[in-house]
Amino acid sequence: MASSLPALQIILPLLLLLGTCSANLIRGGHKEFDYFTLALTWSGTECLSVKDSCPTNACSRSEVETGFTIKGLWPDYDDGTWPSCCEGAKYDENEISILSNDLSKYWPSYSCMSSSACGSFDASDLAYEWAKHGTCSSPVLGNQYEYFSTALMLYFKYNISEILSESGYLPSNTAEYKLEGIMSAIQSALRVTPVVKCKSDAVEQVQICFDKTLQLQECPSTASTCPSLVSLPIKNTIKPLETNNLSFRGMRA
Ligand SMILES: *[C@@H]1O[C@H](CO)[C@@H](O)[C@H](O)[C@H]1NC(C)=O
Ligand SMILES: *[C@@H]1O[C@H](CO)[C@@H](O)[C@H](O)[C@H]1NC(C)=O
């Protein structure tokens, strides 16, 4: 291993200099990713124990329905690791303003707190996803518009909420479903195995994977964190507290 280091030290800067010849390296010296994971969140599970209530949290918004919303579109390496915080343009809402209605409904935040990503503090979840993951999706997706619109396109095209409901897996606060059945419903619709993750027995996340031409592919690891019987809870919409509603107080005064 040590003997290959000097060679690498010469080749790496050369590749970066040549730029166009660096087939396997993207800006910032990260190795190009291998495949995409599209991660989806089951809104009903995410809102089971709402920690924060505020008008921007999906758990307080009735237009976010029971079903899957987008959690992220992540460039990944085959070995189970992933690049993050690559170089790229700073998040700019104006670049994706045409997508803002869809993003707000289908890629909502489940928190009232702002997130910090890649060393900089940003207000929104979308800014975080772009800085941490989106910037690493080059050269397949070259900018913020391509990144967010591709995620939405894949989400619309492979409607997992619909696949489940058509197979009889309906949102319910009492029904228990076989994990195996849920997995095979998705598998027979898409011809790939989904990754299913749970919080206790409630389905929390479904992930499906795509190659770099955006065709479905098997995920390298499909280990599930779920018990054999799982649930798909109905989303409980909790109104934000109105403790500081001055107009209300004013009316009463
Ligand atoms: C997915 O399918 C369901 C059920 O047919 C539908 O209500 C929902 O709007 C679809 N979601 C998207 C994002 O198209
Ligand atoms: C404040 O309370 C009033 C009366 O209940 C209600 O109509 C109004 O929508 C509330 N405003 C906000 C910002 O929650």
Automatic annotation (TrEMBL):
SUPFAM superfamilies: Ribonuclease Rh-like (SSF55895). Keywords: Disulfide bond, Endonuclease, Hydrolase, Lyase, Nuclease, Signal. Transmembrane segments: none annotated. Disulfide bonds join 47-59, 54-112, 85-118, 86-136, 198-226, 209-219. One of its GO terms (cellular component) is extracellular region. GO terms for molecular function: hydrolase activity; ribonuclease T2 activity; RNA binding. It holds the Pfam family Ribonuclease_T2. GO terms for biological process: RNA catabolic process. The keyword Transferase does not apply. Residues 1-23 form the signal peptide. Belongs to the RNase T2 family. This is RNase-like protein. The lineage of its organism: Eukaryota, Viridiplantae, Streptophyta, Embryophyta, Tracheophyta.
